[in-house]
Specification:
The complex is a heterodimer of chains A (323) and B (327). Chain A has 323 residues and is of the alpha/beta class. Helix content of chain A is 32%, strand content 24%. Chain A has an 8-stranded mixed beta sheet with strand order 6-7-8-3-9-10-12-11, sandwiched between helices. In chain A, strands 2-1-4-5 form a 4-stranded antiparallel beta sheet. In chain A, a hairpin with a 2-residue loop joins β11 (302-306) and β12. Chain B is an alpha/beta fold. Chain B has a domain at 1-87 and 222-266 and 279-327: Rossmann fold (3-Layer(aba) Sandwich). Chain B has helices at 59-66, 89-96, 106-109, 116-126, 133-146, 152-156, 165-177, 195-212, 223-229, 247-252, 257-265; strands at residues 6-18, 32-44, 48-52, 74-79, 82-83, 99-102, 183-187, 215-220, 232-237, 240-246, 315-318, 321-323. An 8-stranded mixed beta sheet of chain B has the order 6-7-8-3-9-10-12-11, with helices on both faces. Chain B has a 4-stranded antiparallel beta sheet with strand order 2-1-4-5, covered by helices on one side. In chain B, α4 packs across α5 and α5 crosses α7. The chains are: A alpha/beta (323), B alpha/beta (327). At the A-B interface, α7, α8, α9 and α10 of A face α8, α9 and α11 of B.
Amino acid sequence: MAMLEVDNLSTHYYLAKKPVRAVENVSFTIDKQETLGVAGESGCGKTTTAYSIMRILPENGKIIGGSVRLGEEELTSKTEEEMRKLRWRSASIVFQYAMNAFNPVIRIVDQITEVMMEKEDISEDEATKTVAALFNEVGLEPSRMRDYPHEFSGGMLQRAIIAQALSCDPKLIIADEPVTALDVIVQNKILDLLRKLQKKYDLGVLFITHDLSVVAENCHSTAIMYAGNIVEKGTTSSVFKQCLHPYTYKLIGAFPSISGPKKRLEFIPGTPPNLLNPPSGCKFHPRCPFAEEICTTDEPEYREITPGHYVRCHFAGELNLEG
Amino acid sequence: MSTTENILEVHDLQKWFPVRSGILSFFRERRYVKAVDKVSFNVAHGDSLCIVGESGCGKTTLARTILRLVEPTGGSIFFRGEDVLRKNREEMREMRLKMQLIFQNPYEVLDPRLQIRTLVGEALSIHNLVADEEELKNRVLKVLEDVRLIPSDDFAGRYTHELSGGQLQRVCIARSLILKPDLIIADEPVSMLDASIRTEIMNLMEDLKREYGLTYIFITHDLAQARYIGNQIIVMYLGRIAEMGPMEEVIQNPQHPYTKALVSNVPIPSPDEERQRIMLPGETPTPIDLPPGCRFKPRCQDMGVECGDEEPELREVSPGHFVSCWR
């Protein structure tokens, strides 16, 4: 059984009573040791999905439907008090901007032990020992744990944050753009570390990024989001090699690569829709080269086209998306 | 010493920032961050040169030094055969009309209280380059059309908050283009944008290059982007050129150990492709108090005795392909 099951999750933000449909009918599962990459452009709802799972939405954000099951527990119906106990212990989140995730005037070790002592019944000494072990694990000198955040480089901070995320022994890690602000060489070191820890601790990882290249190289399965929906999901190799949704096809085609022949890339004309007032029918239809009458009126269903490969398109499997 | 086919010639350019340190620094030797250290290169007319490197390698400082937005501490710069460093303030202002800079974040560049027509036409009126309002209006509309903001009279009347990030970056490009520059230096022009829009802007810049006869210098951290848009490349490490040459040659056949590592670490958007990654130990240090000899030495996997004493100079390994490595 999958460790995380998200079923028909919908989250709206309310701006002056009007709903912004940030996430609508999103469903996916993550198994132990699986990394699911969620990719899409800014504003497509990938971070909102993560925040909904952790229930850390801003005040005007509400989960209006669907369920999130982590192991045996249903998260959407938990009280805030119950959620507090679960965060860090069952699921923890690695945020994008490592430089902002720590309080600059508190020593790193104190910030990690604070979380541990809040969640678990352990003494400060024990917690400190665990942090030293974790620092070793993530490739940091334990002697540096009494440093302040500004004494660390970006890559080191990202490692410290991973150590913090692991401190209460979670089953699921949500990594929200964990390497976006880093240079490529450091980026790969962090990704290797995440992979190694995932095996060792049997973790499920929800990996959020805007960079398809990173998804292609690091995730077992891939979900592509557009305007609040998952438009396509499957194993990474099937999504990249046999993509069935025109948006996925176009998005992959827009990424330059350093391998293969150099050719002029295609872009997607137009911009993603305003989710205060999304287009009728399929939300991609105004930018889709294959759109027909039905796409403007009926919202397509999220269907399983080949085993494990889901697509939200009226014409999935019928279109000729070469390559 | 300068030829006409090179639009820009940079020789031994240097920008050292003094490090401020406590009250006792009076007694100590002054220390410097060598952000740009003895950099020499030429840009031929019609080139698209990409300057790549990790954060802190000095690529942005290099770009700003060329425009004298920061004053260099040594070296020389020739733009269209003229000595940039000899120009006074007024002459420099005039020269910058022909070498324009485009920034990474259009939201920070454009005044939200002004209409697009003002933002784009501003430089023309400030420098008195138009005869009357009519000409100004026509040139603004023409350039908005050129950057594909159509219908241009509609866009001209809008404010920045009514435009998307990609459209704002086009406004920035239009602001530069309206001056009919020879050289455009673009500092991470598409890094803020989403993938689908990023490609659109890169394609646009490529088309404009042909239409306006432009020469580009792109500053970027992304090798895949660089390969897409450039024909020449400079790889910088700690303020110095590690390697430079024709784009495909350098990407497919890198010679410097740093370039090799960098290229091997760029992710590619196709799964199941087996690649050999070269991992460098440690992280890039700050360019203060560099060790003697090659500055890449502490992280180099292929170091020899000759690397310890003297800094390697750029040498030509094949036509136009230069590497600063002893090996």
